[in-house]
Specification:
This protein has 118 residues and is an all-beta fold. It contains no helices and 11 strands. The chain is globular and about 45 Å long.
């Protein structure tokens, strides 16, 4: 059972930057994909950014050009660099890893709070 642990959340002013990290208990290169999700109060959890095993990336429109997902295989760590933050980015951010063995298996971290003040 893979374990994921996020860090790097906090309080930042609008326009600021934060980098989230997700340390994995297994080789990140072994997952079919890794992703960052977020959940704001009263809203459903949404996919923010995803990186495939091959290194392809996908972002939701609202973060394109501002967020960058990356992976350090040597450190078994996933990152989310967030720039030009706005209050709408305020949420709990979750690290996710996916493996595909007949069905998709999802692993989740405990989440880290990101609060952007105006």
């Amino acid at each position: 059972q893979a374990q994921l642990a996020e860090s790097g959340g906090g309080l930042v002013q609008a326009g600021g930057s934060l980098t989230l990290s997700c340390a994995a208990s297994e080789r990140v290169s072994s997952f079919n994909a890794m992703a960052w999700y977020r959940q704001a109060p009263g809203k459903q959890r949404e996919l923010v950014a995803l990186i495939t095993k091959g290194g392809n990336t996908h972002y939701i429109d609202s973060v394109k050009g501002r967020f960058t997902i990356s992976r350090d295989n040597a450190k078994n760590t996933l990152y989310l660099q967030m720039n030009s933050l706005t209050p709408e980015d305020t949420a709990v951010y979750y690290c996710n890893a996916k493996t595909v063995v007949v069905v998709i298996n999802d692993y989740w971290g405990q989440g880290t709070q990101v609060t952007v003040s105006s």
